[in-house]
Amino acid sequence: MSERPAANCCERSVEQVLTGLLPGSTTAPVQCTVCERQFQDGADLVVYAQRCVDGGVWELPRVYCRSCFAGVEPTLGVWEAVVTARLGSMLIPTGRTHRPCLTEVGVRTLSGPSEG
Q1: Can you name the residues that pair with 92 across neighbouring β-strands?
Q2: Is the pLDDT of residue 12 over 80?
Q3: Which pLDDT value is given to residue 8?
Q4: Tens digits of residue pLDDT in 29-57
């Protein structure tokens, strides 16, 4: 594993940056990439996150049940993290609604852009 990247220009940790992010689509329910089980608030997740070297935005393209996650291989040119998290809910007061978000984020693995 490589040194932990600066998650953004403010030097926050990967855990801090990923906490509160929306896993998946804004309109579809959050579900496992493998078995398609829909997650409810409080569900334990494994999330694959990636960030291009020249980009500052972390993306969350895949979400897994803990039992479905089989691991990932590092990709050259990309910061990647596999994290455990709990699915939470964030209130959006202007829309009088809520949306799912990541809480209790913990890094399982982190690979740098030179690995892969």
Answers
A1: 97
A2: no
A3: 46
A4: 899 999 999 999 999 999 999 998 887 88
What's the gap between Cα 30 and its chain centre?
12
Question: Where along the chain do its domains lie?
Answer: 14-111
Q: Calculate Rg over the CA atoms of the chain.
A: 14
- DSSP string of 26-49? SSSPPB-TTT-PBP-TT-EEEEEE
Q: Which two tokens stand for residue 42?
A: 């409080």
The sign of the torsion formed by the CA atoms of 28, 32, 38, 44 equals negative
Once rounded to an integer, what is the mean pLDDT over residues 83-105? Answer: 90
Tokens 């996650």 — which residue?
69
Quick one: tokens of 57?
A: 């935005």
Tell me if residue 14 falls in helix, strand or coil. helix
Cα 52 from Cα 93, distance rounded (Å): 32
Query: Do the beta carbons of residue 58 and residue 7 sit within 8 Å?
Result: yes
If you ran DSSP here, which 8-state letter would residue 85 be given? E
The reported pTM is 0.83
